[in-house]
Amino acid sequence: MTPPRRIGLVEDHESVALGLASMLAGEPDLELTVTAGTVSELLARAPQLDLVILDLRLSDGSTPQDNVQALRARGLEVLVFTGADNPFLVRSAARAGVLGVVRKSEDVRTVVAAVRAAAGGEQVVTTDWAAAIDGDPQLPDVGLSPRQQEVLTLYASGEKASRVARLTGLSEQTVNDYLGRIRQKYADAGRPAPTKTDLYKRAVEDGWLPVPERNHQP
């Protein structure tokens, strides 16, 4: 008899975790073997898994892209399980290498089918998220370099340009030049960000900053 696929879940809402466990309980080919509230907690337990189901919205301050990259670095396949209605975040996770996305609002049959397919290494894209995964031209990637991402993350999270300069080892003028180029890239992509609040929103949308639990802005 073929052993069941071993599934891990990263989800910090107990009710959601219990709900998914209930969905999978009657599936003999799928075994939910570990549940954790953060990616670091799951990895610390060093599980041998066929798939990790990952919530995009975690309360530990992590970003979707960082979480996916950490899991992929350990050779783990990832299926995003989310209630976040934000295609920019989904694209961010997709670029980091997830197998697919399924909404928490989907019916049990759809969720189970998505988990089964992803656990077998198949790509999974539900219809209403296909545009986000496939790179809909209405959702352009601004193409920030790693250094620009670092400056944007620090500045948009509330740091002043002078503080960003100290943290990155750049001059304040260089930081301001970076910010000007970042704003220009967003403008060229049709997503202008003239203010610090706008940059904060763009950084959240693109996964460089964690999704706030409330309507927080710097």
TrEMBL record:
<dbReference type="Pfam" id="PF00196">
    <property type="entry name" value="GerE"/>
</dbReference>
<dbReference type="InterPro" id="IPR011006">
    <property type="entry name" value="CheY-like_superfamily"/>
</dbReference>
<dbReference type="InterPro" id="IPR039420">
    <property type="entry name" value="WalR-like"/>
</dbReference>
<dbReference type="GO" id="GO:0000160">
    <property type="term" value="P:phosphorelay signal transduction system"/>
</dbReference>
<keyword id="KW-0238">DNA-binding</keyword>
<protein>
    <submittedName>
        <fullName>Response regulator transcription factor</fullName>
    </submittedName>
</protein>
<keyword id="KW-0597">Phosphoprotein</keyword>
<dbReference type="GO" id="GO:0006355">
    <property type="term" value="P:regulation of DNA-templated transcription"/>
</dbReference>
<dbReference type="GO" id="GO:0003677">
    <property type="term" value="F:DNA binding"/>
</dbReference>
<dbReference type="Pfam" id="PF00072">
    <property type="entry name" value="Response_reg"/>
</dbReference>
<feature type="domain" description="Response regulatory">
    <location>
        <begin position="6"/>
        <end position="119"/>
    </location>
</feature>
<dbReference type="InterPro" id="IPR001789">
    <property type="entry name" value="Sig_transdc_resp-reg_receiver"/>
</dbReference>
<dbReference type="InterPro" id="IPR036388">
    <property type="entry name" value="WH-like_DNA-bd_sf"/>
</dbReference>
<dbReference type="InterPro" id="IPR016032">
    <property type="entry name" value="Sig_transdc_resp-reg_C-effctor"/>
</dbReference>
<dbReference type="InterPro" id="IPR000792">
    <property type="entry name" value="Tscrpt_reg_LuxR_C"/>
</dbReference>
<feature type="modified residue" description="4-aspartylphosphate">
    <location>
        <position position="55"/>
    </location>
</feature>
